Protein: Phosphatidylinositol-specific phospholipase C X domain-containing protein
Amino acid sequence: MGTQVSKQMQRRKAISVEKKTLTDLHGKSGDEFPGSDYRSPDRKNWMSGLDPQKIHINQIVWPGTHDSATNKIGVRFISRPFAQCQSLSIYRQLIRGARVLDIRVQENRRVCHGILMTYSIDVVINDIKKFLAETQSEIIILEIRTEFGHQDPPDFDKYLEEQLGEFLIHQDDHVFGKTIAELLPKRVICVWKPRKTPPPKAGGPLWSAGYLKDNWIDTDLPSTKFESNLKHLSEQAPVSNRKFFYRVENTVTPQADNPVLCVKPVTGRIHVYARLFIAQCISRGCADRLQIFSTDFIDEDFVDACVGYTHARIEGKA
Structure:
């Protein structure tokens, strides 16, 4: 018992030290960057507002959500706090400005997060189609993967093609250098990551796993995650030379050996430092690598930070 108590005290001290490290960095360096004062007048149509004729796909800092379809996962007040990473529906996230979705599925086409599951993938697809019907120039990156420990849904590639066929942007390396206007009326880059079934074929309507990469750091220590994100990002090629999307996630995750297991208070340790991360990318010379930036519990300020830096890139200020 004494050993366990000592271990927990050490963990709490480590978390406290890491939170102070980020607070001190923020106080010393600030979180201003080119475009940081930008506030989108219409987050539902922010790509349209920046001019689809001017925005190249590789210029965008894509605001994304981590474990996107978990707003109703598990049982409310019982298991949900341990797995919920978003409080909004997919449609509401898109309205708020999210443009990258992270969806995990299991064999029966139900969305899941670990052992907990929620609604059918149909709910996600219908929300996306509703949003697409209400907008004209917004591009979405939809990542769907079979969750670890689960089997691939049968014929899932065919399902995605049937449901989203008219909107799907086909797998093509040239997409990264094109403007949004050049891709329209196609609107969805769908990355399908099965575990065992064959991956999408080159040139087809779905994109394979190699086109969306990240370096997932499983920790609840905010400064550790912040610095690891910067390190891995700095090792990537600049977006202008890259033929895949690279994601950084401004999240930390509960750990089994820590008494705090609910997602929201844990990820809150890093959530407020999204603007600081962009500012540090600039000061450390890796801002030209930043592309997809994802978060738990997405809010307007996070979206504005991403869109603001995108706007600065387009205007030649970043």
User: Anything to note?
Assistant: The longest helix spans residues 2-29. The domain at 16-314 is CATH 3.20.20.190 (TIM Barrel). The radius of gyration is 19 Å. The chain has one domain: 16-314.
